[in-house]
Amino acid sequence: MRTTYRSKKRARFNSNKFQQQLIRVILVFGSIILLIIFFFGDHGLYQLYQLRSEKAKIQSTISSLRDKKQLLEEEKTKLSNDPKYIEQLAREKFRMAKKGEKVFKVIEKDSK
């Protein structure tokens, strides 16, 4: 009778030990899965980092486009109000000249 009691006690002890190990393994794998989801999921830290980086690039682009828009607005104002600026552009871009003036085209040699 003692042997059966001891064997039952050992079996119960081994069973409890197995259950504890099983629970530990499940908790470890569950924790690993949760960490992976937390860092690499759709709303994880890595995604958050990428979105912040993209936001910074877009804000930089917006800033440069605003500066460019400001320059274009200034040029538009000059073109509509400043006849000297229009004359300067006509002379530089289209090689236009007043009556009696001569336009010279300077050709630079390629140095090889």
Summary keywords:
112 residues, mainly alpha, 0% strand
Tell me what you see in this structure.
- It is a single chain.
- With 112 residues, this protein is mostly helical.
- It is built from 3 helices and no strands.
- It has one domain (2-94).
- The model has no long low-confidence stretch (mean pLDDT 86).
Oligomeric state of shown chains: single chain
The chain-level mean pLDDT equals 86
Order of helices and strands: HHH
State the distance separating the first and last CA atoms. 108 Å
Q: How does the major sheet shape up?
A: none
Write the layout of secondary structure elements.
Layout: H1 2-40, H2 45-81, H3 83-94
Short summary of the structure?
It is built from 3 helices and no strands. The chain is an all-alpha fold and 112 residues long. The chain has one domain (2-94).
